[in-house]
Structures are given as C-alpha cells and as structure tokens.
Amino acid sequence: MTNRLFRLCDKLLAIARKDFLTSIRYRSAFLMTGLGVVAELAAFYYLSRAIGPSFRPQGMGYFPFLLVGTGFYAFLMMGINSFLSSMQESQQSGTLEVLMTSRTSPATLIFLNAVSAFSRNVLRLLLYLAAGLVILSGVHLRYENLLAAAAAFILSVVIAVAIGIMTAAIQLGTHKGSAVMWLFGSVAWLMTGTMFPVTVLPKPLLWIAKLIPITHCLNALRFSLLSGGTLQGVGREIAILAAFSVVLLPSGLLIFSYMLKRARLEGTLSFY
C-alpha cells in the first residue's frame, strides 16, 4: 500500500513538472490569457452598469452574479473538455494503446489527467474572481462561508471529472466526442444560469435545467460566496451536488471501462 501511494505521488510530481515546463515554454500564453481576462471583466462590468443596479438576480448584484457564473462555468467546461482533448491527442499520436496497456491502470490515468486538467485552471479562476469581486465590485467575501464554498467547489470538480470521463468514453467508442461536447456546452451555457437566473426560463426548460448538475454547481458557489449563506443555508444545493457525484462518477467509470474493453476487442483503440 505504501509503495503504491509512493508511486502515485511520484507520477503526480512528474505530471506537475511536465505542466510547469510546458507553461515556461509557452510564456506568451500567460500574457494572452491575462489580456483576455481583463477584456472579459471589462465587458461584464460595463454590461452590468448598462443594465443598472435595480436588476438583482437571486438578491445579488448582477456583476458578481455574472462573474461567478461565467468564471466557474468556464473553469468546469475547460476541465471537462480536457479529458476529450487528451483522448483525441492520444488517438492521433498513436500513444493511447500504449497508455491503456501499461502497468498504470486506466482509473489511475484518469485521476492523473483530472489533477493536471483542473490544477492548470485553478489559478486563472482565483485571479478572475479576486479581480472581479474584490477590486471591481468591492464585494466583501464572508470568510466564515469558505467551508460551504470549498464543499461546493470539491463536489463540482468531482461532477466535472465524471462528465469528462463520459465524454472521453464517447470519443473512445464512437469518435464523436467533439460533437457531443459542443452540444452539451451549448445547452449548459443556455440553461444553467450562467448569465441569467434559470427562474426566467419556461417551466419545461426550468425542469430540464434542474436536471443539469452545473446549474446546482453555480447556485451553490454563488450562495456561499455572495449571499451570506452558511453551510446550512446552502445545504440543499450541496446535498444535490453530493447525490449527482455519487451517481455520475461510478457511472462514468463503468461506461469508460466498457468502451475501453470494447475498443480493445475490436482493435480500434487508436482510431480517430
């Protein structure tokens, strides 16, 4: 057990080193990302001013509401998409078959990919929220609610990992992962309350929105950071996220295992 844990830590360090070296190699990407964040913050800031202070969705100022929604949505979607991109790159380079037949189990490979995918985007999310909430809108975050925010964040990442594994499984089995990801992202952007509260949707669409876990991810984080809700106050949303996590993560792993086994039998691991 100790040796297995040591090997896992060694692999995590290797992935962190790889990500660090890649970041150094593409330093200009940091500048471009920073400029993009500034432009996005400015656009949302002036949009909220144009709408006016009277519009307070869920009792929150529109700019903080918009900032948390768009920032956290982008963070989750980039993490989900990284699983699909990693699968496609491995297929195109011909390394997928080697990876999936190595001594490292597929479950461990998925875990390592998740750590790499989300760790790259955490800093961007934190800077985005800090610049928007603290500097531009002057929101005073309630530090006693950090426990609620942390619980919502962790469960949201688990859900995003589960969805990412499913998209990788679809790519592995049907080679149509990009189309499915595009459809999911479009529906989620419209119906999860990224830029407006879901309560304005027609009732049939509202029920569908409640079945999309990202809706509850955004609600839980907004309530914990912006509305002064304690862990008990946002408990309903966190309980819903926990239920989604319990269902989606094992389901994603089972679907991936099935698609992997089928691809091995059919000899299509490296097809794309």
Model description:
- By secondary structure, this protein is mostly helical.
- It has one domain (37-266).
- 79% of the residues lie in helices and 0% in strands.
- α6 (146-174) packs parallel to α10.
- The two termini are 37 Å apart.
- The mean pLDDT is 78.
Percentage beta strand: under 5%
Question: Main sheet, how many strands, which sense, barrel?
Answer: none
Order of helices and strands: HHHHHHHHHH
Rg, alpha carbons? 20 Å
Our measurement of the CA-to-CA distance between the termini, rounded to an integer number of angstroms, reads 37 Å
Class inferred from helices and paired strands? mainly alpha
- How many domains comprise the coordinates? 1
What shape does the CA trace take?
A: globular
What's this entry about, in short?
The chain is mainly α and 272 residues long. Helices cover 79% and strands 0% of the residues. It is built from ten helices and no strands.
Features:
single chain; 272 residues; mainly alpha; 10 helices; 79% helix; globular
Annotate the secondary structure layout.
Blueprint: H1 2-25, H2 27-51, H3 62-93, H4 96-100, H5 106-136, H6 146-174, H7 177-191, H8 203-211, H9 213-226, H10 235-266
Helix pairs in contact: 1-5, 2-3, 3-5, 3-6, 3-7, 3-9, 6-7, 6-9, 6-10, 9-10
